[in-house]
Write a structure and sequence with these properties.
This protein is of the alpha+beta class and 596 residues long. Among the domains are: 14-208, ATPase, nucleotide binding domain (Nucleotidyltransferase, domain 5); 435-592, no CATH class. It is 27% helix and 30% strand. The strands form six sheets. Strands 10, 11, 12, 13, 17, 18, 19 and 23 form an eight-stranded mixed beta sheet that branches. Helix 3 crosses helix 5 (177-189) and helix 8 (272-287) runs antiparallel to helix 10 (343-367).
Length: 596
Amino acid sequence: MNHLRNPYGGPNRKLVLAFDVGTTYSGISYSILEPGLEPKVEPVTRFPGQDHVGGDAKIPSIIYYDREGRVKAVGAEASQEHVQEEARENNWFLSKWFKLHLRPKSTITDASKTKASNRIPSLPASKSAEDVFADFLEYLFYCAKKYIIEIIPDSSFWSSVEESIDFVLSHPNGWEGAQQFSMRRAAIEAGLIPDTREGQARVTFVTEGEACLHFCIHNRLSVSPCDSVLIVDAGGGTIDLSTYTVHSGKTSPADKMNLEEITAPQCVFAGSIFVNNRARKYFEEKLSGTRFFDDIDQIIDEFDKKAKLRFKSPNQATYIKFGSFRDNDPSLNIRSGQMALPGTVIEEFFEPSLMSLIDAIEQALSATGNQPIKSMFLVGGFSGSEWLFSKLVHFGSQYSINVCRPKSNLNKATADGAVSFYLDHFVSVRVARWSYGIQCTTEFDAQNTEHLYREHLVTTEPSGTRVVPHVFSCILQKHTRVSETKEFRTTYTRESRMQAALRSLPVEILSYRGDAIKPMWTDVNPDCYQPLCKVKANMRQISKTLPRLYGPNGIYFRLKFDVVLLFGLTELKAQLAWKENGVEKRCPAEIVYDIE
């Protein structure tokens, strides 16, 4: 299948940058949009401090800070021996896995709560997760700018695009509006965009699962109309699962490949760092009280770089070199600076992550109903594990699922796919992960037993209407399939004796995360209702036009409006709508998140 693109139809040259900030490694891809030419996706393959220039499209997601909180070294530069020696001498702080500090607390799975798995390094004392994320984005932008300027002979190119660069930021499937809000604020702090409505619009978000789907399509993994596919993005911190069905193919630029999400995406905190954590716990127990205990960091580093991905079978031993030929201790299986580990021991490091992944896959399979999965595409750095791949191939054979990996560099799947998402937009329908709505009141009905149960909470509106509180008004129900352009809206009213009280209209959007098919009352299992965001709009102009109404206790005002939500995009959009002289008016609403 030849995935051609239409020529770029914009009037001016443009640059798109995609930053894949991973838990352990990060990458950059880009596309230069020239009017009349077909856009192409390119990776940044040269970073400062890399040993193998051009051979790797990723750098470690690490930052060294000094004791005053200043950035001293980032990425591959922070991995250089002379930098690490300087860091030890000056007591610099190494920040790694910082991305996981942005994660929603509610999405931590049982797999990540175990003692061995939950060792997420702390942040620098003077820095928030958002601050560290911003420092890393600033460095990635520096790397992208340096690389692009070096490879493009046109000296005026950068100045012609730098004020209008569009950025695509990828994130795990389980992240939502609050995490996107933090990432956008980090982009502002990093100087990528100005803090204006126009500047903020230059940042687009895509889930890692959807980005990897685009990568797979462009790497010619076979998809045909009516096929259903499962994308497994196995990364350092998370494993993301996304399921799609193919509705049409693409054979020329005039055609549009169309895929629809068929189940809500999943995010499992069971990536490769948790394998490392279980290995670390094993080595700490094994080497406790020995002269080799101080070598554990080096042992883990060697395990991570070499032994982990090469491990294939519990029937063969693995050797981890960490010392000199003088280092020997037969009781610890250490000979000539190498520790021999039985394959059965290494398998124990992997198995909890595999079990969490298989459980998530089985949930996805059961949720697809009459659309059986035919193919499973495995991408991401962790998918390079031969043991993990062989286990998933065996699992897939039980369900007649073909499991395959792209032949291209798996490490750049998310960054390349994020640019493709910006250019191609193959997914037209997504599935709502939760039920969304607002808490409101409704007119009291003495014939309704649920209303009678709450009669002691009934209040009277200025109009004289008696209302019962704690009603969950659902705007979008869980598992609803949502097209990008479909709006979900519900009409509400606000009453007040003071006209000025209706000038500002804050509405809190809730997400219901329980098991009820049609949740109705927020005081039933209240922990299942989580604030998603607040939608705020300035209603000063319409409030001035509200007519005076008369109730039992005098004059009052009533504002009637619609909350309009668009969930079909990768980022929640909201508007408020109302009628003026029979004509619908709208205003974009500011969405405010309470950051956890």
